[in-house]
Design goal:
This protein has helices at residues 6-10, 13-16, 19-22, 61-74, 90-102, 114-125, 140-147, 161-178, 199-204, 231-235, 263-272, 274-277, 284-299, 301-320, 341-353, 384-402, 405-413, and strands at 31-32, 38-41, 44-48, 107-111, 131-135, 153-156, 182-187, 212-216, 243-247, 257-261, 333-338, 357-358, 360-362, 371-376. The protein is built from 17 helices and 14 strands. It is 43% helix and 15% strand. It folds into two domains: 6-54 and 301-413, Aspartate Aminotransferase, domain 1, CATH 3.90.1150.10; 61-299, Type I PLP-dependent aspartate aminotransferase-like (Major domain) (Aspartate Aminotransferase, domain 2). The longest helix is centred in the C-terminal third of the chain and has 20 residues, at 301-320. By secondary structure, the protein is α/β, with parallel strands linked by helices.
Amino acid sequence: MRDLFDRMRQDKGPLGKWADIAEGYFAFPKLEGEISSRMKFNGHEVITWSVNDYLGLANDPEVRKIDAEAAAKYGSAYPMGARLMSGHTDLHDQLQKELAEFVNKESAYVLNFGYQGILSTIDSLVSKNDVIVYDIDSHACIIDGVRLHLGKRFTYQHNDMESLEKNLVRATKIANETNGGILVISEGVFGMRGEQGKLKEIVALKSKFNFRLLVDDAHGFGTLGKTGAGAGEEQGVQDEIDVYFATFAKSMASTGAFIASDKEIIDFLKYNMRSQVFAKSLQMQLVEGILKRLEILRSKPEIKQKLWDNVNKLQSGLKDRGFDIGSTQSCVTPVYLKGSIPEAFALVKDLRENYKIFCSIVVYPVIPKGLILLRLIPTASHNFKDIEETLEAFSSIRDRLVSGVYKKISEKLM
């Protein structure tokens, strides 16, 4: 027998092995100051492309006023307890009603957190006799939810409808044998690549297969569609999404999430989602703040337009300069470069310290070896000056990467 901790001491994992170099700078960095397009990092101002405040609501004066007043009125504790027992209020009901109407569903249920919310939704929707079929590029929260499933589960290749159809054939055979059902899971927007899930093509397969569709639209809610109701609205298939999930941590610049569906399905989930039945309710200060954010989203379409003006300016500028931004169809803007992990460290340090640009860095094992992904999140708070400075900086660091500058620096560091 070995000590349980021996494995952790001997193998820190594909990311953890870089902790001594990454901690506090590349991993767990500290951005300071008000949430905006420019914040403080490591003692100096940087243009910030790593904050998911899509609509710029974090520092909207109306939002800040409501947040402050709600905090003063309720504190951070009320209501105490889980919703089922003692943590339910009229404002929770009001928010659920408004959210359901906004995303064109019969009913909605507010959740205390996004990650555990989608995880628990998946767990509650299926039994051991059911089969899950999900996109291989799904977010970690979906993967963790699927891991709880005691029945069969299959992945289909990312946004590949032929692969999905093949797996639906397999799933149908098993479901017929177990007398179970099939749940297909896709994201509305895949947060790393920025691609929209092929929801229109997925729902078209309902004419051939009997399944229900769950969509995690964390990055689509508030940013896509005529009203901001998300990827389903954008693609004209919102009615065909059986269970719609979105978080408040992106466009709403807050905490929490919600699910929306037919009333009988929401009623079932309310009484069976373990992460809600046995966990504290979303605090009132957040509920009241989200109501205000939703009001602004509905009444001020110019905010979403400003966001997309910035998105289009940034993405077209990158493409004009020959950068590979993949096939993003959303605000998420990936920039792919070729290089090793040590080169990525050197590049990002140069970008942050000398060009005063802060964006997220993604390396193996999240993406294939030999690639560096710089992930930019444009928001309504950015302006064209921010974008022009960033484009110039990216052209510069690419030249330094190609010429081997970062390779030499990384060799000294390692």
